[in-house]
Specification:
- With 272 residues, this protein is of the alpha+beta class.
- 41% of the residues lie in helices and 23% in strands.
- Strands 4, 5, 6, 7, 8, 9, 10, 11 and 12 form a nine-stranded antiparallel beta sheet that branches. A three-stranded antiparallel beta sheet has the order 1-3-2.
- Strand 2 and strand 3 form a beta hairpin.
- Helix 1 packs across helix 2.
- The longest helix has 41 residues.
- The chain is elongated and about 95 Å long.
- It starts with 6 loop residues before the first strand and ends with a strand.
Length: 272
């Protein structure tokens, strides 16, 4: 006789699937998964080995947060097509969760890198770094754009790209090199949002890959033109041509209480 035709006690069947036997009892009570037979003398539930595939499917769907009513509907209309459709939906949900978690991890790594740099950085230093190409979401601003309007613009973009939290992205401002060289140090033209793993789409701003001049400014915004003058002097001394936009981003907002301690990271593409 084939041993697979033998009945298993509820304890044996639960152990085989790595669950508590109370789970099987509950599934029976709600009509989700019935035992193969019930001993009429003692009421003990017994299960067949051939029920394993169905139970494993139920456990998989529960792990994917499929509701009990949804699973009941599926079991009543069980087929390869219905299971494929259900799994397609859950795989899409998982892909979105994975993308979100990767974005959060990238953001955490950025914060960690910034914090590590804060502990050792020389704020007077100007350096050349290499950066990869980035796709940035941008919104246009001008001298007359109020802070309230900037918040509304950023909020609209975060909703458009389904950002659940502000920490899902990095934010900053952009000012063209031509404005800086002309002495228009308050001529900011764009705010940018950087979302990790954002795929290229028409209309996004491309921050080019390659060499960037990096510097930092701490404290009084009124002194940032002086910092740019130092950057220009460094570029001239080293034969560097600044191009495109200067990308400014705060790097220590989450660890300060006073704006006097605020540090802005400045990055500008250069031709060496």
């Amino acid at each position: 006789m084939n041993k697979k035709n033998h009945l298993l006690t509820i304890g044996q069947f639960a152990s085989m699937h790595g669950i508590n036997k109370k789970t099987l009892m509950w599934y029976d009570e709600i009509g989700l998964f019935k035992p193969a037979s019930i001993n009429p003398e003692n009421g003990y539930r017994c299960y067949s080995y051939h029920q394993s595939a169905i139970l494993e499917t139920i456990l998989l769907l529960r792990e994917l947060d499929v509701s009990i009513p949804e699973i009941q509907i599926f079991l009543k209309n069980r087929s390869a097509e219905s299971l494929k459709c259900l799994l397609d939906e859950k795989i899409a949900d998982l892909d979105m969760q994975i993308t979100h978690l990767k974005a959060v991890r990238t953001t955490l790594c950025t914060h960690r890198r910034n914090m590590a740099a804060l502990l050792t950085m020389d704020l007077s230093e100007i350096s050349i770094i290499e950066k990869e190409e980035r796709c940035l979401i941008t919104v246009d601003i001008g001298r007359d754009t109020s802070f309230e309007e900037e918040v509304e613009l950023i909020t609209a973009e975060t909703e458009k790209y389904h950002l659940g939290r502000l920490h899902d992205a990095s934010y900053g401002s952009m000012i063209s090199v031509s404005s800086l060289l002309a002495g228009s140090f308050d001529d900011y033209s764009k705010l940018f949002i950087e979302i990790p793993f954002l795929a290229y789409k028409t209309g996004l701003h491309i921050s080019p890959g390659g060499a960037y001049l990096r510097a930092f400014h701490k404290g009084d915004w009124g002194r940032i033109p002086q910092r740019y003058e130092e950057i220009f002097a460094y570029a001239e001394k080293h034969g560097l041509t600044l191009q495109g936009f200067s990308y400014e981003m705060g790097i220590n907002e989450n660890v300060i209480d006073r704006m006097e301690d605020y540090i802005v990271q400045i990055e500008i593409p250069v031709l060496c």
